[in-house]
Each structure stands twice: as C-alpha cells, then as structure tokens.
Task: inverse folding
C-alpha cells in the first residue's frame, strides 16, 4: 500500500488525509445544508429520497448510517419506518448539526449518535441489518477498509448501500458538469461559505473517486455479493448496493 493518498488532486501522506478532511467539514458544517441546495440546485434532495427508498429499512431492522453528516439519510430512514438508526460521522461538528436538526424535528427515539471512523466501526460482527453511506466514501482514506467493515457488521442477509458521485455517462452533460464543478461551485463556496478551498477540494474529490465498475469490483473484493449499481442524473451520482450472504 502506498504511503500517500489523494486529497483532491493533491497527493498527501496517508496519515494526514483524515485530519485534512476533518478540517474541510469543520469549515463547511454550519452552511452544509444550504450549500448542498445551492451546489445541486436542490436535486440532492431527490437523490437522497431515492436512496432512502432503496435502503428500505423496515420496522424490524437497524440501519448503521456511516458518514451521516447532518442527518438527511437517518431522518429519511426513520420516517420510512426503520426500527433504529445509528447515525455516525467522524466529524463531531457535523454530528452536532445533526443533533440540533433531530431536536427541531422532535425525533427523540430510535436514533443514536456516535463519532465513528468508518474504517474502524466499533460494533460487533453481524450486528445490523443495513449499512448506508451517502457522499462520504470518497472522503475516506482507505475505501476498501470501509467496505470490509460494512460487510463485517452486517448480519447474513443484510445489505450495504452507497450513494456517491460517480462518472457521468452522457458526454454533453459531462462538459457542462465540469464547468459547474470547477468554475461555479468554488465561487459559490467563496461567496456563501467564505471558503473557496474546501469546495475546490470537494469538486476534485469527486473526480478522483472510482467509477461505477471499479467501485463494484472493490465491493466484491470486500466480500459483498450480488453487487449492482443504478445511475441517477446521467451518472452524476450512482447508488451501489451489495449483500452479505
């Protein structure tokens, strides 16, 4: 394994990436939800709704939501009927926003919060029925470790779901998307969040993330089976899933 890894378009020591990512999300946390609306023109809400429906956590199932950020997936899963959601994130600042949002929604049961590194999940083997991660896997240093950990904590018959930016499959859309990502988004970040650098990193991290087929291969290598993906918005994002059988 290389001693360096990607941080956007930069190569940095593997030991430094987690702290660099943490700094990014500490910076963006206060305006994270507003920025998501501006950056995606509100479409992220549709992607997340489709993702929650794909997870389909039932009243008999516990969902472990990794890199859960400010809580959109967790809240959606509970509203759809999940028995319990464990909302985790490596960044306490993001979880603090999620906790405030949960209180605003009157969510007092069925939801737990924990600061968790997705590469080292502090849960027993075979302890949850569903594992999800939305727009978080690309920020992890060792993505394969996250996938292995997700499989480890799943019960047999449990399913892993990942929502992540991916490779655009429509060429004309790809050109427009590049302009939006590298010209418009950093400018929005500078004007609204007063932080151009963090949003430049977020755009770069998307381009460094494995494409659909590569991620499917990584999931299989981690021991997940019946791996599949579904493109949304022409491949701007994709939902990947795999089972522990």
Result:
């Amino acid at each position: 394994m290389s001693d360096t890894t990607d941080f956007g378009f930069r190569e940095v020591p593997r030991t430094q990436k987690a702290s660099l990512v943490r700094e990014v999300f500490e910076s963006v946390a206060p305006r994270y939800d507003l920025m998501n609306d501006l950056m995606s023109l509100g479409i992220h809400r549709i992607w997340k709704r489709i993702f929650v429906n794909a997870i389909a956590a039932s009243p008999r199932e516990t969902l472990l939501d990794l890199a859960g950020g400010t809580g959109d997936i967790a809240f959606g899963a509970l509203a759809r009927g999940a028995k319990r959601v464990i909302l985790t994130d490596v960044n306490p600042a993001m979880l603090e926003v999620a906790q405030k949002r949960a209180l605003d929604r009157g969510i007092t049961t069925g939801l737990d919060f924990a600061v968790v590194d997705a590469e080292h999940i502090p849960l027993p083997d075979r302890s949850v029925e569903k594992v999800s991660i939305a727009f978080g896997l690309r920020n992890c240093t060792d993505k394969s470790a996250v996938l292995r950990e997700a499989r480890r904590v799943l019960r047999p018959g449990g399913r892993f779901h990942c929502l992540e930016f991916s490779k655009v499959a429509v060429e004309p859309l790809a050109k427009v998307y590049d302009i939006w990502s590298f010209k418009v988004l950093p400018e929005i970040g500078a004007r609204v969040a007063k932080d151009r650098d963090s949003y430049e990193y977020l755009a770069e991290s998307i381009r460094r993330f494995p494409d659909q087929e590569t991620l499917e291969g990584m999931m299989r290598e981690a021991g997940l089976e019946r791996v599949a993906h579904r493109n949304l918005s022409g491949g701007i994002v994709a939902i990947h899933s795999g089972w522990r059988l």
